[in-house]
Amino acid sequence: MLTLLTEGMIIIIKNQEYVVLIKMKQKLSPNRLKVLIALFLIAFFFLLNPSHASEEIRIPMKITHLFGEKTIFLYATLYKPDGKGPFPLVVINHGTPRDMSKKDRIFKFSSQSKEFVKRGFVVVVPMRRGYGGSEGNYAESYGRCENPDYYNVGMESAKDIKAVIQYMTEQSYVDKNRILVVGQSSGGFGSLALGSMKVDGLMGIINFAGVRGSIKEDFICSPVRLSQATYEFAKTSKVPTLWIYTENDKFVSPSVSKEMFDSYIKGGGKGKFILLPPFKQDGHSLFGDVDGIQIWMPIVDAFLKEIGL
């Protein structure tokens, strides 16, 4: 609770942990005093509200190559609630641009992350190998369009995500038994692949518009291979999943996304598929667009309740 008092030429602003005194050199008019107080309250809120803070971190990942093993570092953005924790963990995984010259872009998903922080989660947004800020070679090439290897590409993404989880669960402020993985586009596809691995503490996966192989608008290389890959992922997956797609996604059509989901269920996976109405010009941006948060957050809240997070 925030309390504000004015005593002559002194303004006192306090909450349960902080007291701030402002002593003015001269008495201000009522209007100027209101403006000063409003500005200071804004600054005070941003300084003390931890959901607005982020930190850049480097996450170690061991990779094997011809000459043995080495450690590289993945760039990540960290968002933490106030307090010592331990807090449940959310890992948010980015997509892949069609134009690979733009893969150096760093995704932070700050507004999306803060929604989870408000709900008591610590959030990490990593960049996978070969993407902006991270070391290592790009490992997610699926080969030729007519013969794509989506399964192994998904598993490569999953290796990065798993390395991030291993590092984060070693931190004292993280509850290693309560983990949620969220991914958008190729990050969603990689998150589904992660579900096929043994990851202690993983309670759920949310896949926003997960896909691979969209080389141009409304075209995917060999979409049947996507369904074959999700079928394989599901064989060893025990984790509840939520699939969120839109009717006007220009990377993946409703028919392809539903086929991927149906194959996942046939393979033994557990999941719920939601197809939302069109979002702006391209529904593929639903997760990354701040205007999409009010649409998907209630759906995510219901899923979190279902899985006990």
Structure characteristics:
309 residues; alpha/beta; Rossmann fold; eight-stranded mixed beta sheet; 31% helix; 28% strand
Descriptive report:
The chain is 31% helix and 28% strand. With 309 residues, it is α/β, with parallel strands linked by helices. The protein has two domains: 46 residues, no CATH class; 254 residues, Rossmann fold, CATH 3.40.50. The strands form three sheets. An eight-stranded mixed sheet has the order 4-5-7-6-8-9-12-13, sandwiched between helices. It has a three-stranded antiparallel sheet with strand order 1-2-3, with no helix packed on it. Strands 10-11 form a two-stranded antiparallel ribbon. The radius of gyration is 22 Å and the shape is globular.
> How much is the radius of gyration in Å?
22 Å
Topology, number of strands: 13
Largest sheet: 8 strands, mixed
Q: Output the CATH homologous superfamily of the largest domain.
A: Alpha/Beta hydrolase fold, catalytic domain
Strand residue content: 25-35%
- By secondary-structure content and strand pairing, the structural class works out as alpha/beta
* Strand and helix order: EEEHEEEHEHEHEEEHEHEH
**In percent, how helical is the residue content?**
25-40%
| Strand order, sheet with most strands | 4-5-7-6-8-9-12-13
Per CATH, the class of the largest domain reads Alpha Beta
Low-confidence stretches: 1-22, 46-52
- Briefly note the CATH topology name of the largest domain: Rossmann fold
Question: What's the structural domain tally?
Answer: 2
Can you name the CATH architecture of the largest domain?
A: 3-Layer(aba) Sandwich
